[in-house]
Amino acid sequence: MNGALEHSDQPDPDAIKMFVGQIPRSWSEKELKELFEPYGAVYQINILRDRSQNPPQSKGCCFVTFYTRKAALEAQNALHNIKTLTGMHHPIQMKPADSEKSNAVEDRKLFIGMVSKKCNENDIRVMFSAFGQIEECRILRGPDGLSRGCAFVTFSTRAMAQNAIKAMHQSQTMEGCSSPIVVKFADTQKDKEQRRLQQQLAQQMQQLNSATTWGSLTGLGGLTPQYLALLQQATSSGNLGAFSGIQQMAAGTTASSNAGAMNSLTSLGTLQGLAGATVGLNNINALAGSINSMAALNGGLGGAGLTNGTAGTMDALTQAYSGIQQYAAAALPTLYSQSLLQQQGAAGSQKEGPEGANLFIYHLPQEFGDQDILQMFMPFGNVVSAKVFIDKQTNLSKCFGFVSYDNPVSAQAAIQAMNGFQIGMKRLKVQLKRSKNDSKPY
In terms of Cα–Cα distance, which of 347, 217, 240, 215 is closest to 288? Predict the structure, then answer.
């Protein structure tokens, strides 16, 4: 019937329809039946065919339904990502069909933590068998074969798994364990992928920070109390003599020809740090301005050296100026982020920076929100706005966003560092937002 093998009797009520990919296009139902029958009696096989061809050609995949759920799972365990059929480059892919996803294994699989290392699989089965039929029970073991103190248990239905969580989670402390037993749904593939993405992003940001002005200057953090005391003295009394103490602490001896630039830098840094800072962050911002300024003169900005003439001096100046705000963020990241996002929310509309300081960021991970994009772009300067665009119908991210700085230098630094930056399988695209006055794209 319609290219399928069928029987008059019906499969078990809990049988699963399986999707199977990576099968030769030349195979018929007969060869597929020979492949599947060692694992149990087959109720139905249906090859997916391209109807635009005449006669219709196999698409190299099919659906198979065994009479029992057990046979389907055994076939999956033996074939999926393991057996490669003759003439194929990749192993068979076998998983429950989309219509069966409501009872997918990941929805019924539990992680059991804080298990006594003396327990074996049978002990775990006995503990959890009261909640229903257990399809699989496995203790996690190290290379030496010894238990790692945790296990996975898969029930026949999600309801059974939920009942086991309610009754067993933190119900007892097992022998040799420091805290009560943990019973929760095992991480799904999506959970694992998301965690891997977050770890990868954190690692990449760490590498990026160590290569930027921000990262190269964090070593000065130990001097914070002295700097802060001197800065408070300077800002309260207007006494620039205090700055000379700061200069000596940060830069050691400074050539007299650079003294004018030094004073300009420190003054600008301090004023910039004090201006526009949220209450409670003023001193930190002022501190950041001075640290950045002196580090610039001390070669801390990676060779922007003042000996290179006016261009070098200005480059050091602008970089020092653009790096102020993130020091406040480094000291109090949560407070800073929340403050900015609250201001952004209160304003209602999108706040923009000056011409050339506004960026569009494309190819953001789906799970990224305003907080994530803000923290990712803070290392390059003072962010005045960070927004991920949300689809109003679905309330999901459109995977692009908008970041504004208070100066174009920071925006260019962000483009250089972050355009093409890889997060998981995506590479960010970072570019300047077009001016409203620009002509239409050509």
Answer: 217
Question: So what's the pLDDT on residue 277?
Answer: 36
Adjacency order of strands within the sheet including 93-96: 4-5, 42-50, 57-66, 17-21, 93-96
- The structure tokens 């059974």 sit at 160
Tokens at 285, concatenated = 């911002």
pLDDT at 190 over 60: yes
Residues 6+ positions from 143 with CB-CB distance below 8 Å: none
Q: What span, in angstroms and rounded, lies between the C-alpha atoms of 195 and 154?
A: 22
Asked whether the predicted pLDDT for residue 228 surpasses 70, the reply is no
Percent of the chain predicted with pLDDT > 70: 62
Residue 142 CB neighbour total at 10 angstroms: 8
Whether the Cβ atoms of residue 329 and residue 379 lie closer than 8 Å to each other: no
Does residue 56 have a pLDDT over 60? Answer: yes
Alpha helices in 218-281 (DSSP H): 224-237, 241-251, 259-274
Residue 99 CB-density burial (10 A; 0-12 exposed, 13-18 middle, 19+ buried): exposed
Whole-model pTM?
0.32
